[in-house]
Design brief:
By secondary structure, the chain is mainly alpha-helical. Helix content is about 90%, strand content about 0%. The relative contact order is 0.13.
Length: about 140
């Protein structure tokens, strides 16, 4: 009976791990596709390499600058609520971003998306050890 419980627990961990990794992959893919679409739109509107650089810096700056604050937030808040809330806010920002054409507003929205990406990335990293367990963490990180 104990062996059956161990096998069931192991299969649950594998399923949960695959779910977490799959969800993170979809999240990253969406972030990168949004950045690519923005770069193409910017270039289509006559933006040069400097404008593209400013856009990419606006996307990455919140991730770098907010890392210490986001780490504390992730340690204190419920991961599920953080992921759901920030993901829904990012989706809403993407809808608004698709409609906005003013460059300053686009940069502000991109920076807000970067804030959401910073929170999501830290939350996923915090969830991984809990899902994989101490023995499965190296394998989970490799996946």
């Amino acid at each position: 009976m104990l062996e059956l419980f161990r096998n069931a627990t192991k299969s649950w961990v594998v399923r949960a791990l695959l779910l977490v990794i799959g969800a993170r992959a979809v999240s990253l893919l969406g972030d990168e596709l949004a950045a690519l679409a923005l770069v193409l739109r910017l270039q289509g509107n006559g933006g040069g390499p400097g404008a593209v650089a400013v856009l990419l810096i606006a996307a990455l700056l919140p991730i770098v600058l907010l890392a210490p604050l986001v780490g504390r937030l992730v340690d204190r808040a419920d991961s599920r609520h953080l992921l759901v809330t920030t993901s829904l806010l990012q989706a809403a920002l993407c809808v608004v971003l698709a409609l906005v054409t003013v460059p300053a507003a686009v940069l502000l929205l991109v920076m807000l998306l970067g804030v959401g990406q910073a929170v999501n990335g830290a939350t996923w990293q915090a969830l991984l050890p809990g899902v994989a367990g101490p023995d499965g963490l190296p394998r989970a990180v490799a996946l």
